[in-house]
């Protein structure tokens, strides 16, 4: 069944008017006709059955029926990724949605070549990936921040899995094996890696655990996917 993220509150009997893009997708791309059912979610109220009730030149209308699934909180995992090249960053955001990250924080570091990102486009990619992957929430893609401010903003009770390809570090799975399931953030650097000063400052953080993702240097997207996979299997919702 097609899944659609909507910003509206969801309750039985509500009537919704999707955006023009969404109406185009439902009617012209997926060729739904009045009476067709789909699943609606907004990240707050769980997943609800929606029925296409009206199609017009202006758009379409949906009626909300029964609740299909109650809202569940995703594991509290932030992915912090340095601003890498656009297509690779788009891949990382899509994989973060599939792998259950709750937020994607974009970091400006000493070696990032960009200091801005098309956050609206990245958020749309996150929504589309959340629809496809069956999530009940959508990862929030946040505006880029300089790394020191971003790390200061994390909150002292969030553990930091610092993926450090250069320094002495425990294998990530070893560091995660004995850890608790509280709030975590995974930190991935840019194509040029972290500077020595950055590495020193990150390692000095009490909440930081430097880890290795193996003997090979991974591209930022590979590293992000690998680290999120290890975290989900050790501490997240991949455990039975
Ligand atoms: N400085 C590297 C490139 C950085 S790779 C080079 O020498 O070419 C981009 C990011 O992926 C790194 O900053 C790190 O966060 C992560 N990463 C890549 N390979 C890793 C590994 N083997 N262990 C830990 N982190 C790794």
Tell me what you see in this structure:
36% of the residues are buried. The chain has helices at 20-29, 86-98, 119-133, 147-152, 172-177, 196-203, 220-235, and strands spanning 3-5, 15-16, 37-41, 47-55, 60-69, 77-82, 103-108, 140-141, 145-146, 159-163, 170-171, 184-188, 208-212. 31% of the residues lie in helices and 26% in strands. Helix 2 (86-98) packs parallel to helix 3 (119-133) and helix 2 (86-98) runs parallel beside helix 7. The protein has seven helices and 13 strands. The strands form two sheets. Strands 6, 7, 8, 9, 10, 11, 12 and 13 form an eight-stranded parallel sheet that branches. The protein folds into two domains: 3-69, Hypothetical PUA domain-like, domain 1 (Ribosomal Protein L25, Chain P), CATH 2.40.240; 77-239, SPOUT methyltransferase, trefoil knot domain (Alpha/beta knot, 3-Layer(aba) Sandwich). The model has no long low-confidence stretch (mean pLDDT 96). It is α/β, with parallel strands linked by helices. Residues 163-165, 188-189, 191-194, 212-214, 216-218, 220, 223 line the site of S-adenosyl-L-homocysteine (SAH).
